[in-house]
Structure prediction request, 309 residues.
Amino acid sequence: MKAVRNAPPTIEVVDVDEPDGVGELVRVVATGICASDLKYLQFGSTQIAGHEFAGLLDDGTAVAVEGFFGCGRCEQCEQGLFNMCIEGPTAPGMLSPGGMSEWFRAPRNMLVPLPSGLDPADGCLVEPASVAWHSCHQAGIGPHCRVAVVGAGAIGILTAAAAQQMGAAEVDLEARHPHQHDARELIGAGLPTSGYDVVIETAGSESGLSRAVELARVGGTVVHLGFYPPGTVWPMDAAFSKEVAIRPSLGYCSHYRRRDFAEAAALLASRPELTSTLITHRFPIEDAVEAFRVAQDKSKGVFRVVVEP
Prediction:
């Protein structure tokens, strides 16, 4: 089968054997490229790429595949907190073969059926939408909550939409580029002012962290989604002076037997404008090198680039 393999500093399209072993065989329909895939190349990964993907089972069931595999046995996994797996979650595309290939074999418990109204060709957005949904859950967003999101990439847009879905009284979004402002207006998010109960930082930058603390009210909460480079200066003095709580959000999991993945899939099915707006480019797997090149420049109208095996 054809697959896209990390070959730092770039990728290559290769022919490899179909995956064997235990688990369900998924015919991959679409795989997204995100910033993590680009970082994995910097880290030197030589695995098959891809952790945002969806496809079809033998019986035609459309599924998205969770991008964290816990051991399934430890105390954390038994509670549904596989992102906190004691043995360390497996990360396809970095630590194990990913889903940017024609076929992928996944543990059955990591498959989430797609709801009607969500095309499997768009199902690769369930993974980043789950990251967004989890961050809002970590923040405790609900009615009467004023929310600002810093960073208007795909995950920033999805985070704002998730906050709206959770019933936030106000959701505003800080964007930089014209296409990001267009998306902000499309989903009905305003421009940030000040004094927010919750601020979610999705840009993954030092300046984004500082801006998030600046936007938070006294006693507010800042949730951050990403890993920051070594040497990042955290705005602890500013947070201390306002008693702003800073809380990390790692991936996604299950809460009270309801999976972030299922919630995110339902969000996308209910708001089709999200998939049509955020998937800006599609490439056949043979053109994966060009797809990765396009994905690296977010200033030219790019949200998510999708590779179709």
The chain has a mean pLDDT of 94.
